[in-house]
Amino acid sequence: MTRPAHASDPTQTLLTLLDLDDLGGARTDKDVFVGPSERQPRHRVFGGQVLAQSLVAAGRTVAEGRHVHSMHAYFLRPGDADTSITFGVERLRDGRSFSARQVHAYQDGMPILSMITSFQEPAEGLDHQSPMPEGIPDPESLPSTADLLGEIDHPVAQYWAYDRPVDVRHVNPAVYVSASGERIARNAVWMKTFSPMPDDEALHRAALAYASDYTLLEPVLRRHGLSWITPGMSVASLDHAMWWHRPVRVDDWLLYVQESPSAQGARGLGAGRIFNRQGVHVASVAQEGMVRLPYLDGPS
Q1: Rounded distance, CA 101 to CA 2, Å?
Q2: Which residues share a beta bridge with 291?
Q3: Which of 77, 227, 275, 277, by CA, is between 20 and 30 Å from 139?
Q4: For residue range 81-120, what is the model confidence (pLDDT) as tens digits?
Q5: CATH code of the domain containing 79
């Protein structure tokens, strides 16, 4: 389905989100940055946005040439998508090869996310990877989100169809509005930005963190026959861990293969591996999320 003529370039929206203001180098006991929030139909900050912006803030404080290789983050409070976010970066350590940073994202003086992340200079060493799954259809043969949701007259459907900066195409039948397929704890999507990105490895890694938060809990939903519009269901990301293994470009197609090894106690775990189209394993991700259903809720 063709994007509406009036629609702005969503990739440019992503680049604007990642262009943080350093307030002229202002510092307290931390480096301080401010970033905008992305418009959301439910007025709640998308978790991937805060992850990506936190990585950009941390990266601004490390030596040139050191790229993020891992991060571990906790979502502490829902964010307000109508309010900017302040990022405070603490310089934990700078070694010969590695730099460690702690980032807190704030709104109204309260932390909404806490992250520790590590950066490394390029180095030679042992090298192996898991293989990319075989038999996956090409992304061009799969329907886009706009194809699936573009005719639905609802703000969330229209936002997902036309305003998200990443083109997401499901290998398994999408669980946007129904989950009538096989109940398996697996999911796979192709994804890439709609337009080219600058040749900046740090931006590509941050953008991949942004996109990694889209579908990682879908294996939990698929396993139990749930869709994103299941009545009364409440889903929220609790934490997010990510490891970058090799250079990546998010403006080329990436295959995101996901599974859920466990769900229990109103929580579900999603784990994912990301491959480029040539089969190179570029990143791994894990996330636990709250998944509450009204007919299963116990005491809070």
Answers
A1: 42
A2: 235
A3: 227
A4: 999 999 999 999 999 999 999 999 999 999 999 999 999 9
A5: 2.40.160.210
Q: Which of 54, 213, 239, 258 is catalytic?
A: 213
The residues, ordered by sequence, that sit 6+ positions from 25 with a Cβ below 8 Å of its Cβ are none
- Counting beta carbons within 10 angstroms of the beta carbon of residue 299, is it exposed (0 to 12), middle (13 to 18) or buried (19 or more)? exposed
SS3 content of the chain, % helix, strand, coil (to 5): 20, 35, 45
Q: What are the Cα distances from residue 67, in Å, to 49, 155, 206?
A: 19, 37, 10
Secondary structure (3-state) at 174: coil
Evaluate whether 99 touches 89 at the Cβ level (below 8 Å).
Answer: no
User: Does the pTM of the predicted model rise above 0.70?
Assistant: yes
Residue 213 known to be catalytic: yes
Q: Among residues 49, 54, 237, 260, which one is catalytic?
A: 237
Q: Residue 5 — pLDDT band, cuts 50, 70, 90?
A: very low
Which candidate in 40, 107, 258, 287 is catalytic? Answer: 287
Q: Please indicate, yes or no, if residue 133 is contained in any of the structural domains.
A: no
Nearest CA-CA partner of 291 in 255, 262, 271: 262
**Residue 4 included in any domain:** no
Domain assignment present for 126: no
Residue matched to tokens 């900017």: 84
Given a contact cutoff of 8 angstroms between Cβ atoms, the answer to whether 48 and 14 are in contact is no
